[in-house]
Amino acid sequence: MKIDNSLPLEYSTDENSNKILGFWIFLGAEIMLFATLFSAYFTLVDRTGTGPTGAEIFEITPVLIETILLLTSSFTIGLGIHAMRIGNKKAMLAFFTITLLLGLGFLSFEIFEFVHYVHIGAGLQTSAFTAALLTTLGTHGAHVTFGLFWGLFIILQVKKRGLTPETANKSFIFSLYWHFLDVVWIFIFSFVYLKGMM
Amino acid sequence: MDFFDRFAIPNPSPVIYASMVAIGLTVIAIIAGVTYFKKWGYLWQEWLTTVDHKRIGIMYLISALLMLFRGGVDAIMMRAQLAVPDNKLLDAQHYNEIFTTHGVVMIIFMAMPFIMALMNFVVPLQIGARDVAFPRLNALSFWLFFMGAMLFNISFVIGGSPDAGWTSYFPLAGTDFSESVGTNYYMIAIQIAGIGTLMTGINFITTILKMRAPGMTLMKMPMFTWASLVTNAIIVFAFPVLTVLLAMGTMDRLFGTHFFTTTNGGMDMLWANFFWVWGHPEVYILILPAFGIYSEVISTFARRNLYGYKSMVGSMVIISLLSFLVWTHHFFTMGQGALTNSIFSITTMAIAVPTGVKLFNWLFTLWKGKIEVTTPMLYALLFIPTFTIGGVTGVMLGMSAADYQYHNTMFLVAHFHMVIIPGVVFAMLAGLTYYWPKMFGFMLNEKIGKLSAWVISMSTLLAFIPMFFSGLDGQARRMYTYSESTGFGPWNMVSFIGAAGLAVGFALIVYNIYYSTRYASRDISADPWNARSLEWATHTPVPSYNFAILPHVKSSEALWDAKKHGHELFPGEYEKIHMPNNSGVPFIMSCIFFVWGFSFVFSLWIPLILTTIGIFVCMGLRSFEKDHGHYISVDEIEETENNLRGA
Amino acid sequence: MKWALLSLLFTIATVLTGCEPLKVLDPKGPQAATQAKDIMLSIGIMSIIVLAVFGILIFMLTKYRASKQSKDYEPPHIEGSLLVETICVGIPVLIVIFLSFVSVQSNYKVEAKPAGYGDKEPLIIYASSSNWKWHFSYPEENIETVNYLYIPTDRPIEFKLYSYGPITSFWIPQLGGQKYAMSDMVNTLHLAADVPGEYMGRNANFSGKGFAENTFNVKAMSETEFDKWVKEVKKTAKPLTEDKFTELLKPGHLGQSTYTGTHLGFLPPPEGEHGGHNHGSGHSMNMEKDEKASETSSESEHHHH
């Protein structure tokens, strides 16, 4: 593998730059995936059948906490990548760990939220609206869960193998993924929760 | 005993039992054969674990041909049932299962792998690359597709085939009206194959954008590569819609949700919309690579450069954009009103313009050429008139008021077969014949090849032209029978004769493969067709690294430049070549996916959870794996090159 | 060989069509006539394109075959020409614009009350499908039929389509194109018959096992005859009770039958307040709705038409 030192570590080989482009294209597909879920949600949002409406079940506090946790984690992973760029492995690992902990916090609140919905009679099978809501949120939540494991694996690898073109590349791609989940959440927050509560 | 009841066929018939026995015997024969000839090691090392794009391409090809057989048998049974009025050959249930599987198999498991086969084999060679960007992902794509196809195909012997049409409209496809596990197979098998396709899309865009030979700018790419790039872009944007759609359908069927049901707010129209938001681009995913093949073949055998290169590229890009803006024309009759119908009517007809540009450019490529009618060229030349008939009837269908009369009738069936068969199938057969020598080192017999091209194209006309008429006479599609008083009898009899002719045509192709394998000369050059692009610049058989020295390019016809204008294609010296390692993980992971899918179909939750964990373990292992590939030394390259040159 | 075969095929086709006209091209009402006109027009224009493509192809093949050229002929490199390609884009664009124009006009025609009947009120018929039957409710006349449809000629008919099950498509080729019947909304299809006669009607959208036989007979007759039929039905037919209708809804095939009263009262169609938005758990729940309230609502429904 030829390593081009004029480029940042994560871009430094052909394979690395292929992977980053490939991942961007993957994110394009992810945008379509969430766009489909959103359009299903907006189509079905008023079709509540015998179940509750969004305004009846949404609560602002847990959602705000989730939002703050996830937004902060997007910021900390940015700091992590910055640390990686200047070669500070220790700081990078610290920021990645904080990111994952924040993600875990987000996930706990989301699980709590789901349990609450099921409790008050807004389960997956209640109506078209609840199915679309829980599927959209659930898909995002599943992405976060997947990200937690992925991020953990990367932390372990960086710790063991140090900052190599390979680990730097993985870390950078993971950060793209994490930022993307944050962007999706902003859409969920604005158009599912805020709009639903109005 | 209850546990095993679920695997029984809900609507058995002697034919199905016979198929069970046949499948069982075939599997035993294959296992016994491989064991007897001690080929397990070879199979594992050279094929099951390969990451070589050429071998993956060949495996796609074999799968496509197998599925063509399966879908073809379905077609023959349907046409036989309809050949005469009030026929009792099949009952309604079996007919429904057959046309459903015919549609799914032909589109998802025959046409898709066929284009994947050619893309895999040709694109890296055509752009002067040593492999695709992510070789292992490519292997995973193939095996996921393959396992999806196998899962779908066992449905008719275990648990029952899907029977709600390849479109699987809800509420018909919901558990209220489709109780058997058949539609679960539909949801899950296509999902697995679809994930593989999506990965291919990402892989090939990256490959084409990043791994082209030095000097090959975007506008110097051969037309098939352009077609592949545009196609894969459509895949990346269309397939996630299918992923979500199938997930929702699965949830409605297995988890009791209400996305598409008739109760609790469910909306059946949502399925139709999403299905065609994916489904229409899917049509262009199939046809654009076919157009790419025709561009290569026509320019090679007209012995001329492709006319209007830029407008060819432009029209593909426009087609790809428009393909996302026409989905409503699949259900003009759903009641969305005159305004919506008018808008989609116009976008639909607008697609005729870029398609027409391509057609005229092919015609003008013949102009002042020196046309040599070989088998691939014959397919291309037969494609032009037949496809034109299919295409203009598409414009007719695009007129929404008139579509109220065509919709759901045999007219529609005639139209899409008249575009897909000449458009996709002829192109794949042309591509198969054209690239056969590069793949296998000998040429297919021209005489048998031309005969099969004629038989297939004439039979296509015979099979489908009558349907235009019976459709206009009121024959709805998907009817398993009709009474004599309708007067549809003669039309359907002619169609049956055409279908039988198609069977003969495909049998001729099989015979040709057998005949040429036995008798064709192995002493052929690397460029037997006197072609123009890079895939013909390397040896036959193609060495694992494709090109010993990466080619340098200065036009879209690099090989032609080298042959006619003294362009130096391979400047420089041998250097060691980095190649990816083989891996068994894609195959194993896909096998786990197969069990996962099977468990899902039958709601076997414990195996489902275990296999889900298995899949994630495979991904975790991949994350921790250190695999830097291997190098081929200069000595080794020299030896291989000398051997190939000597041959 | 190919061309000979092709022309042979078309000749056979024309001869056959000459004997008995294809239903869609033999319209008996204004909507079907509009559609048949569009179809014939587009066939005409498309044939010109097909002929042009065939012509160019034959010309190229006869003139530029390798066998007709000297051995050392080298085809030139031709990039493409702006003029030629502009023509190749321009002519199709003009054709598409013309066809769009025609198509849009026809869209509004087939989606409106058929023209040419003065200010005659349309006859409203609720046509609903269940596996695998058609139920025709005449709210004005307060009668209902199964699997057959009587309509008066020279009067616009407004079909209200919906389904108790899979999506179906209501189609009477000689009177006009089809439209979907779905479970969570009511679609409106405007048709009219100019000529008395018997026509084939069917569900055109695949709906499972009994789909092929999911047909109905249509009889168009003069208005006086129609009125006579209504009177006779009212005198002789049994009333349609809720129990009877539930029995009719069961999957299967039935012959033709006639009732006084309609199911619209005890089982309102999915329109207005009964539409998809507020759908509870399907028709079984709606059955308990007040009969009177929905009857007035369906009456007011055709007052404002």
UniProtKB/TrEMBL annotation, chain A:
Origin, by domain of life?
Bacteria
Residues that span the membrane, as ranges: 21-43, 63-81, 93-112, 132-156, 176-194
Q: Name one GO biological process term.
A: ATP synthesis coupled electron transport
Q: How does it sit in the membrane?
A: Multi-pass membrane protein
Q: Which reaction does it catalyse?
A: 2 a quinol + O2 = 2 a quinone + 2 H2O
What are the alphabetically sorted keywords of the record? Answer: Cell membrane, Membrane, Oxidoreductase, Transmembrane, Transmembrane helix
This one is known as Quinol oxidase subunit 3
Identify the species of origin: Neobacillus vireti LMG 21834
Automatic annotation (TrEMBL), chain B:
The name under which this protein is listed is Quinol oxidase subunit 1
Q: What catalytic activity is recorded?
A: 2 a quinol + O2 = 2 a quinone + 2 H2O
One of its GO biological process terms is: aerobic respiration
User: Which GO molecular function entries does the Swiss-Prot or TrEMBL record give?
Assistant: copper ion binding; cytochrome-c oxidase activity; heme binding; oxidoreductase activity, acting on diphenols and related substances as donors, oxygen as acceptor
Q: What is the main EC category here?
A: oxidoreductase
Query: Function, please?
Result: Catalyzes quinol oxidation with the concomitant reduction of oxygen to water.
Q: Which Gene3D superfamilies match?
A: 1.10.287.70, Cytochrome c oxidase-like, subunit I domain (1.20.210.10)
Name its pathway: Energy metabolism; oxidative phosphorylation
Entry membrane topology: Multi-pass membrane protein
Q: Which InterPro entries match?
A: Cyt_c_oxase-like_su1_dom (IPR023616), Cyt_c_oxase-like_su1_sf (IPR036927), Cyt_C_Oxase_1 (IPR000883), Cyt_c_Oxase_su1_BS (IPR023615), QoxB (IPR014233)
Instruction: Report domain Cytochrome oxidase subunit I profile positions.
Output: 38-554
What cofactor does this one take? Answer: Cu cation; ferriheme a
Q: Where are the transmembrane segments?
A: 15-37, 58-78, 98-125, 137-158, 185-205, 226-249, 269-294, 306-327, 342-366, 378-402, 414-436, 448-469, 489-514
Q: Provide one Gene Ontology cellular component.
A: respiratory chain complex
Q: Does the keyword Oxidoreductase apply?
A: yes
What binding details are noted for the cofactor? Binds a copper B center.
Q: Where in the cell is it found?
A: Cell membrane
Q: What is its EC number?
A: 1.10.3.-
Q: Which key words tag this protein in UniProt?
A: Cell membrane, Copper, Electron transport, Heme, Hydrogen ion transport, Ion transport, Iron, Membrane, Metal-binding, Oxidoreductase, Respiratory chain, Transmembrane, Transmembrane helix, Transport
Question: Which family does the record claim for this protein?
Answer: Belongs to the heme-copper respiratory oxidase family.
From TrEMBL, chain C:
UniProtKB keywords: Cell membrane, Electron transport, Membrane, Oxidoreductase, Respiratory chain, Signal, Transmembrane, Transmembrane helix, Transport
GO CC annotations on file: plasma membrane
Catalytically driven reaction(s): 2 a quinol + O2 = 2 a quinone + 2 H2O
Q: Which residues form the Cytochrome oxidase subunit II copper A binding domain?
A: 120-232
**What is this protein for, i.e. what is its function?**
Catalyzes quinol oxidation with the concomitant reduction of oxygen to water. Subunit II transfers the electrons from a quinol to the binuclear center of the catalytic subunit I.
> How is this protein situated with respect to the membrane?
Multi-pass membrane protein
Pfam families according to UniProt: COX2_TM
- Membrane-traversing stretches: 39-61, 82-104
Instruction: From the UniProt entry, list the residue stretches annotated as the region Disordered.
Output: 259-305
Q: Which family does it belong to?
A: Belongs to the cytochrome c oxidase subunit 2 family.
PROSITE patterns membership? COX2_CUA, COX2_TM, PROKAR_LIPOPROTEIN
State a single Gene Ontology molecular function.
Answer: copper ion binding
Q: What processes in GO biological process is this protein linked to?
A: ATP synthesis coupled electron transport
Record's superkingdom? Bacteria
Q: Where is the composition biased (Basic and acidic residues)?
A: 286-305
Return the protein name: Quinol oxidase subunit 2
Report the residue ranges that make up the Cytochrome oxidase subunit II transmembrane region profile domain in this protein: 16-114
Could you tell me where this protein is found in the cell? Answer: Cell membrane
Q: What class of enzyme is it?
A: oxidoreductase
User: Which EC numbers characterise this protein's activity in its record?
Assistant: 1.10.3.-
